[in-house]
Write the structure tokens for this entry.
Amino acid sequence: MIDSLDIARATLLDASGLDEQALVQVMDRLLSQQIDTADIYLQYSRLESWVLEDGIVREGSHSIEQGAGLRAVAGDKTGFAYTEDIDLPQLLEAAGTARAIASAGQSSRQAIASRHDLPQLYTPLNPVDSLDEAAKLALMRELDEAARAADPRVQQVIVSLVAAQDTVLVIDDQGRLAGDVRPLVRINVSVIVEQDGRREQGSAGGGARRGLDYFLEDERALGHAREAVRQALVNLEATEAPAGLLPVVLGPGWPGVLLHEAVGHGLEGDFNRKGTSAFSGRIGEQVASPACTVVDDGTLPERRGSLSIDDEGTPAQRTVLIENGILKGYMQDRMNARLMGVAPTGNGRRESYAHLPIPRMTNTYMLPGEHDPQEIIASVEHGLYAVNFGGGQVDITSGKFVFSASEAYLIENGKVNRPVKGATLIGSGPEVMTRISLVGNDLQLDSGVGSCGKDGQSVPVGVGQPTLKIDELTVGGTAA
Amino acid sequence: MSHDIATLENIVAQLLEEARQQGATQAEAGVQVRQGLDLTVRLGKTETIERTRDQGLGVTVYFGQRKGSANTTDLRPEAIRETVAAACRIARHTAEDPAAGLADAALMAREIPDLDLDHPWEIDPAEVAAIACRCEDAARGHDPRIRNSEGATLHTGRGLFVYGNSHGFLGGYPTTRHSLSCAILAEQDGEMQRDYWFSSARAAEDLQAPETIGEIAARRAVARLGARKIDTTECPVIFHAELAPSLLYALFNAIRGPSLYRKASFLLDSLGEAIFPDWVCISEDPHRPRGLASAPFDNEGVATQARDLVAGGVLQGYILDSYSARKLGMQSTGNAGGVRNTCIDSSGETFEQLLARMQCGLVVTELMGQGSNTVTGDYSRGAAGFWVENGQIAYPVAEVTVAGNLRQIFGGLLAVGCDNDIPGAVDTGSWLIDRMTVAGN
């Protein structure tokens, strides 16, 4: 495989006329005796997107973002500056600004050590060039036609296609130089259907750290078009959702957004160092039912949430967060790991050079249990079966979280019954996790669509879970 | 700042000239640069200092009815030619679209009024830290139950922006924005609650006092302690003033051009129809001096103007840019980039009068999740707030949902309070809604 670090060096150093000597000079400016850690993050991103609407590919856009973020950390204080111009004078000026967090002093000169020993979880290709323009547009038109052919009630189809390549280079205060070339592709199909004056929508999509040929394999993209129509048609039949406490069975895959909100954010290192999370200080305690084992795993090859190295140069890991219901560990970046006296876990991520790295999730999912999904549904007399969701949100301090079902059914006498309208589900993370009574044997990861927002920074993530049963959860419908 | 308006105007002119040379029949371009300082103090000490400096340029070219766009953070001269070339490459592949093109030349802003949006704050990091400390100290000292903090953050920034197109329109102006926020934790009997408050303004002198922001944040966090879940019920609901803008945004989303031409709105074909009770008036004022959402022209150079969106409860106009206007056979309303400074008139009651009128129901002070469906109007969101009995706040409530349909919510608007005295991008007092489903136990 082509070495990501070599590509990153060529893109970010050679092209800007910078060499290792220049990096040493900038790092020297950034460091002083009081600085515990520091890093320089260079980034070059290109992105191409296309939109089809009303049967035509009506717009496309090409985007280039580049810059350098420089950070100096003293204790729990951080100084940060960035520049869009990657050249020596600008880097030195930004370094001087970032180090102002600590008073001046002498620093020790570090030689640069290139890290070629890191894993590569994806091919460092440029997905923008992975299909020619004619093939990209033909794929989009094919999805439009497939969605319209699937049912005469389809009124509107919107297809969006995005291909991006993110090239990063990180140099830390030890002189370690790590690079990564991250491809990312994403497709989405959204439809409006109409019947007797009632309109509903459906949407489906997927993505991966691959070239666009990913969507052509196994008719993957066509599958998304059919799925969007199926969801919209189900919603045409939906009646009022129930309101109140009910047993809830969640389907496998994307409903794992439950874990992301109910426990994931609450286990990020920054909140726990500061003692602001409902899970703070609870390592070793029973925080979920014994049926629950939850991991954050950035090492799954080619997944949307995966990273060969995080944005601080730490190799991605598989971190066990909860094992058989016992809280095992938090997700850490370098600063919070150092302040908490633990090792970084490869979860230091940033939206771009213009943002500070903070602890973030990668792919967060629950390991499979032993129950047949049908047996789980059959165990519910009257409840909700929710298989598709929109986004969610959590208040990590109180532990309260929500996630919004977009496709759900009533369960009556152990059988999946009529569809009900979308509704928000609300609970308290620490409580809900103890009410997970049955875990299925059908673990699925999502199709590669997730994005997570924290402190105004958005990063791609993955979620997953097997079918599972929550004994009671508040369902926010309108039918009392 | 190393750039000035004239430099940016020159870059836009070069982008437009380059587009013409590369064969575009029409083109539009924009450039912006922003500089700022973000400083956070936590537990009385400086936690982060961030110097921000952003820049970017974008260009859209048209070859007849075919369109292509490109943008970059690179402002060097060679980037201009490359970015225009990238946009032209895209336009070779997009389809002929009868609705594509610049906004009509006749709609371009002829005069660019000075809206008093530029008030740089000359302040060094030590002074910034001192202000943020006053804010956090006020929060921490407010109540013994305040035991932890996420800190206080002050942001100050100034940006320059220039837009031009091949009709000959070229306009730009500087803007400033400053904000101070505080997020604080209250603790009692092992229960933790977090809340925050913030103020944002074009001029530093218009910010709320640091101590006031800290005290409000602390008061809100403490008031949440002891929150209970309530039984599932149907009752009147008050959306407190700081959350009521979310209901106006739900309205704006439903009357935006793309939602309408895609037939993806529950308010399709509602122009001229009563969607609120007859006393409701909602207006837009893009030229408000120092307004947080003020703009003399929209993102296509179209002159912006004050107007009523809803008068006498009746929908008066949609929110359109030139593309969606052509798709609908209408004219741009100068809203490329969104609505600017909207306001719903108060029906005159104070917050206490709203409580008295409601007698028994839920006051919502926090909303969670998305849960607002523009296609169907179905609405279901997570909520926290206070239960009201006999017209008085009785106790805090958490972990419930409020649900209904936006048509019924708008139609069931009983009153808008006069309890908002802080001008924002969306001005509204608290909303009293006649009936919603509250799900809890």
User: Anything to note?
Assistant: Chain B touches chain A through 77 residues (CB under 8 Å). Chain B has a mean pLDDT of 96. Chain B has nine helices and 17 strands. The two ends of chain B are 57 Å apart (CA to CA).
